[in-house]
Design brief:
Length: about 280
Amino acid sequence: MKFYQLPPGAYPHDVAPAPDGSVWISGQRQGFAGRFDPNTGQLEKIPLGPGAAPHGVIIGPDGNAWLTEGGQNAIARVDARSREVKLFPLPKDFPGANLNTMAFDQNGIAWFTGQGGVYGRVDPRTGKVDAWKAPRGVGPYGITATPAGDVWYASLAGDHIAREAGEPIAALTLEHYPGMAEAEVARHVEAANARWGLLGVTVIHRYGRIEPGENIVLVVTAASHRHDAFAAAEFLMDYLKTRAPFWKSEERTGGARWVEAQQSDDAAADRWAPAPRRSEAAQ
């Protein structure tokens, strides 16, 4: 093993070898991108700007160094030839993202994470930055992309990993047949009443355009025994997700597509095969 001593206070956080044999580092404490030449032992520091505190660094498909620049809440690109620094600030809705790591997908899009509960992407061709709230809140840290186009990240604080299958969803549009949808939901509410002897039930299902993070369904059940209330609520939720006359369209940057029910959802609904009424079962 060979060691390369850096200047005092360099405080390298991440490291990324480049095709030309050089090695790039993120100098977090001093706010620079560093290009280290193993042949000469020289470290070239490229300042990233006031208050800079870079975390992750990778080499992009363009051969340039890309960094998650937490101090300025931006993604930074350092041109490998000119050393020009270009910042791609996050949208104003995501201040203090606590940016961590990056990865490029097969389309040349740069994806990033922020422990503050954010993940996003930068299109180097247009400079457009998209960011989204992580569904489970704070923690997104390490990130990678597969040849198939999936993006995975690990949540350090959330104890989970997550997969973003390509384009994130911008919105859902739920369509229904007025009159028929209400009648079908009411019919299944009556079935739940007959099966579990409910004291009360409320079902609300939204339709129209719904953005990520907004609520879609509410099911509230009441019964003399909690097991009956829980079972009835699960029955109604499984029905609403698979058999109710609603049609779901996912809206993404590249367009919209209709969504079919998943096999796991169908299997969950199938477990509620017709059963005898409570009074019949007791005989």
